[in-house]
Every structure is written in C-alpha cells, then in structure tokens.
C-alpha cells in the first residue's frame, strides 16, 4: 500500500493560550520542536521525543501533535502493530494501530485528546485503514487523575469516539485479562468486506466465540 499522508491543522483555545493541533508532522519538523517535560507516560521525555521522530520516518507512521508555541504538549501516533502482537499476524497492510496518545497534565481538560483524533481523521486516506487501539488499564494515569478505573475507561471511550473508534469484542488474552481493558477500532469507508473478514479472524481465534 502507498501510504499517503497529508497535513491538516486546527487551533484549540485553552486556559494557557492557543494550541495548534497539526499533523502528520514529518520527522525533520519534530526534531525542531521542544518536547514537554511532563510527557512521561511511556518513557522519559527525550526518549519519547526520539520515538516520535522514528515513527514519523516509517512508511506507514503518522504523528499528530498538540503544540504550544514551539513545544509539543500532546501527541497521537499511528503505525503497524508490534510484530509480537496478535494484530501483526498476516501482515495486513491496511491495519494500523493508534500506538500512543498522551497530553501533558497542564493541558488536560481542554479536549486536546479529542482534537488530536479529529485532526487525524481529517486525512481522507485514513478511510483506507482499519485503525485499532488496545486499551489496558495499567497504562492509565489513575493516580494523577484520581479517577476510578471505570470512570477512566468511560473517558477513554468517549475520547476515542471523537475519532470514530468504537468498542469491538475480542478473545485476545491480554485484553480479556481484565474487564476494563478493551479493543476499539475504526473501519474506514474504503475497507472492503474481505479485509473486514481478515480483521474479524484476528479478533477471534476461538471459533466458539466468533
């Protein structure tokens, strides 16, 4: 598949000032921006900044950012699933994963996450993909937000819905290991029934649950 990437942006008003939500951002541009020190959900800030630069270099990789002046304060990434995960089986070139979404605590509560997803879907080429995200409660900032696991799950679902991702059932063991975990997906309007069937076969390996 020829992964076409186009640039889109919007301005979002927050209490701290306007944010620019933009992407896909190429790797060279990401290198020029500063990276907020509180973006630590997945790895230390400098390492995560480098990870975004690496994702942007991938053929299928996409990075959409929230930027306050010259500093990245939020981001969402899309890339092929990890080779060790079920979702990479069959090397389906139309299936990409929302790999990470994060917003610096200072800018939470201003719909930054929703806006990142909305700008992501402004690119019409996204209609060629099945986009998945796997939500695991142990990745959630329950301590920082002081939310229950179920309230956080509702918040995540609502945010993902803004990008058109909805709940899908699966028998994948890690997702099934806790009832708050879930698989969410968006099936693009250009994805045909044969591809949807291939996605369904990944979702369910136990034919009695199909």
Note down, in words, how this protein is organized:
This protein is of the alpha+beta class and 210 residues long. It has one domain (8-204): Gcn5-related N-acetyltransferase (GNAT) (Aminopeptidase, 3-Layer(aba) Sandwich). The protein is built from 7 helices and 9 strands. Strands 1, 2, 3, 4, 5, 6, 7, 8 and 9 form a 9-stranded mixed beta sheet that branches. The protein starts with 7 loop residues before the first strand and ends in a 7-residue tail after the last helix. The model has no long low-confidence stretch (mean pLDDT 94). It is an enzyme of class 2 (transferase). One of its GO terms (molecular function) is acetoin dehydrogenase (NAD+) activity. Pfam families: Acetyltransf_1 (PF00583).
**What sort of overall outline do the alpha carbons produce when their principal axes are compared?**
globular
Q: What's the count of strands?
A: 9
Provide the domain count: 1
- Give the helix tally: 7
Instruction: Name the CATH class.
Output: Alpha Beta
- Arithmetic mean pLDDT: 94
How far from one another are the termini?
29 Å
Strand portion: 25-35%
Q: Radius of gyration from the CA trace? A: 17 Å
CATH level 3 topology? Aminopeptidase
Counting helices, strands and paired strands, the structural category is alpha+beta
Poorly predicted spans: none
N to C succession of SSEs: EEHEHEEEHEHHEHEH
CATH-scheme architecture:
3-Layer(aba) Sandwich
CATH superfamily: Gcn5-related N-acetyltransferase (GNAT)
Major beta sheet summary: 9 strands, mixed
The percentage helix is 25-40%
């Amino acid at each position: 598949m020829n992964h076409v990437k186009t640039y889109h942006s919007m301005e979002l008003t927050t209490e701290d000032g306007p944010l620019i939500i933009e992407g896909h951002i190429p790797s060279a541009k990401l290198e020029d921006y500063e990276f907020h020190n509180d973006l630590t959900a997945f790895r230390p800030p400098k390492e995560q900044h480098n990870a975004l630069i690496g994702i942007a270099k991938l053929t299928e990789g996409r990075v959409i950012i929230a930027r306050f002046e010259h500093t990245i304060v939020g981001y969402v990434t899309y890339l092929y699933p990890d080779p060790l995960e079920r979702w990479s089986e069959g090397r389906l070139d139309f299936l990409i994963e929302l790999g990470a979404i994060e917003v610096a605590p200072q800018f939470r509560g201003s719909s930054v996450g929703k806006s990142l997803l909305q700008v992501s879907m402004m690119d019409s080429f996204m209609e060629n993909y099945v986009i998945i995200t796997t939500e695991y409660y142990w990745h959630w900032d329950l301590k920082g937000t002081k939310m229950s696991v179920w309230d956080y799950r509702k918040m995540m679902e609502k945010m993902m819905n803004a990008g058109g991702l909805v709940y899908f059932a699966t028998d994948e063991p890690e997702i099934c290991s806790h009832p708050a975990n879930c698989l969410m997906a968006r099936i693009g309007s250009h994805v045909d029934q044969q591809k949807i069937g291939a996605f369904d076969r990944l979702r369910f390996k136990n034919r009695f649950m199909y």
